[in-house]
Amino acid sequence: QVQLVESGGGLVQAGGSLRLSCAASGRTFSDYSMGWFRQAPGKEREFVASIIRSGDSTYYADSVKARFTITRENAKNTVYLQINILKPEDTAVFYCAASGPRSYRSDLLKRGDYYDYWGQGTQVTVSS
Asked: Which end of the chain is more exposed for a tag (fewer CB within 10 A), N or C?
């Protein structure tokens, strides 16, 4: 089992920035590809970003790639999501997820069903 705990969400004005963190425990963190997803009120969960085990490759939804950056520190068992130039439409619950242990497939990293473990989420609210 892998336990994931997100933090760093909050209420922020449009144009601001946030850094979300996801702390993992339970298994060897570097064995897992990690992803961030979000779910806005009344909408389906959507892929935001993912990062492979080594951190050498990252993937983004087209809608966020200019403003979001995913990174990881395997020594700290933590994955981060830096969000810049926040917009009201970024308001959502952000979830981190772990996929593995397995060799990753880049074509599947955007799919929620490719992930085996999920955190409880952290709320991000952007005011206009």
From this structure: N
